[in-house]
Amino acid sequence: KESMMASKTMFQLIVALVFTLTLTVTQAQTIAQKATACSTEFSNVPESCMSIVNFAECLALAGIDTLDATDSVRVLTENILLTAQKNHPECANFKNPDAAPAIRTNRGDIEFEVNEGKDVKLFRFRRETVSLFEVDSRLGDLETQLDAVPTKMADLTTKVEKSIEDSAKSTSASIAQSEENLKGNISKVLDDAKMYSDDKNTELETKIKQSMNMLQASLEESVQTNMSAIQKDVTKNLDAMDQKIKDLEKLLNTTQTALQKELDSKQGVLGWKQCTYPKHDNGRNGAYTILQCKFNKMRDDTILHIMHDGIVRVINGWMILRITVDGKECLNHDKNAKGALAAAFYGSGGVNIHRPGHFGGVCYQNSAGPLKKGVHTITLLTTSASGDQYYAWQTGTKMFVQELSREGWQQDNCPSRASCN
């Protein structure tokens, strides 16, 4: 019984841990600040059906429903909304005719906004369609099934305990009956002994001892048999319970992995960064490193989109700018040098013209191989130059880096200068 209670407690701890890991921790202070800003904005405009709808949408986007029901900010803002709705009953069926689905970013997260009754779907070319609300519903169903597990475990434990209790009662009754039979047999033996003469006493005592030994052995065998059967039943039930726990854990892990993989495959831009160098003003001539930008790549199977923006001047000469990753040239998808990121600038005579130096492209890999996840160094440098050079006169320089998934990537096919399919 103690082993069963320990298994039950361990199962409850496992379920609690799984739910704890799948919950998203919301910063209550940030939500409260956003909700307060919504209330301030609402109080500064005349009350109308449109302003009430905008106020409700603002609270929903702030995540007001994730705060505790007794939170002071949640109570205050919801009371303001309820009061406005009561004051304007004509707005009960109001719908914003100009409302349209929206996609925005918030602190690196992608947010989708749709009206009531609309859906958010992700389409994969010539494959399946995934509804985000359907995914949320499936996760809710899975959580409901997991919530029912403790109740089922409790019912199973109750049945096992009752089975043990009934078996114990049956064994006790069997032992009591055996004791009564033993007493009756001893009494019968004693009564029979009175009929024998004194010279038969020794033989009679021997028979009594043999009978008692046989009865005791039979009783012990019966008790042992019953206890072994009970132990087997308990062990079998505990094994079944452990297997169900393992099956539920496996189902949860498989579902989470599949959903995460599906969501990851639908993302286009996984992350981006812009390195800015204000008023670079570099009049150095010849080959040298101009600037560097660090970027943390999130996955192994993605590619980098790199763009440079700066001002370049060359008088009576040339200047070749290159972008490298970790000190090596970028290659295209088939490890060809056509994927190198470079630009050439030329100036003749004494013309002093500062031209925009905007160039870049996609870095599938570098000469060392695919770009693994982790921190990479993107470098802008001149590899060949002559004449009078000047870089970023009176302006800043920017290096823009994006991490892109290969989902939707179309392979380039350019067999000649005049043809690119």
Entry keywords:
7-stranded antiparallel sheet; alpha+beta; 46% helix; 421 residues; elongated; 4-stranded antiparallel sheet
The portion of residues assigned to helices is 40-55%
Rg for CA atoms: 40 Å
The quaternary organization reads as single chain
Gross morphology is elongated
Q: What share of residues are in beta strands?
A: 15-25%
Compute the number of helices: 6
Strand elements, count: 18
Instruction: Name the structural class.
Output: alpha+beta
Could you explain how this protein is built, in words?
By secondary structure, this protein is an alpha+beta fold. The chain has 6 helices and 18 strands. The strands form 5 sheets. Strands 6, 9, 10, 11, 14, 15 and 16 form a 7-stranded antiparallel beta sheet that branches. The model is unreliable at 18-25 (pLDDT under 50).
SSE topology:
Blueprint: H1 2-22, H2 28-43, H3 49-62, H4 72-87, E1 102-106, E2 109-113, E3 121-123, E4 129-131, H5 132-193, H6 201-266, E5 269-277, E6 288-297, E7 303-309, E8 311-315, E9 317-325, E10 328-331, E11 341-347, E12 355-356, E13 359-363, E14 365-366, E15 369-370, E16 374-385, E17 388-391, E18 397-404
Antiparallel strand pairs: 1-2, 3-4, 5-18, 6-16, 7-13, 7-18, 8-12, 8-17, 9-10, 9-11, 9-16, 10-14, 14-15
Helix pairs in contact: 1-5, 1-6, 2-3, 2-4, 3-4, 5-6
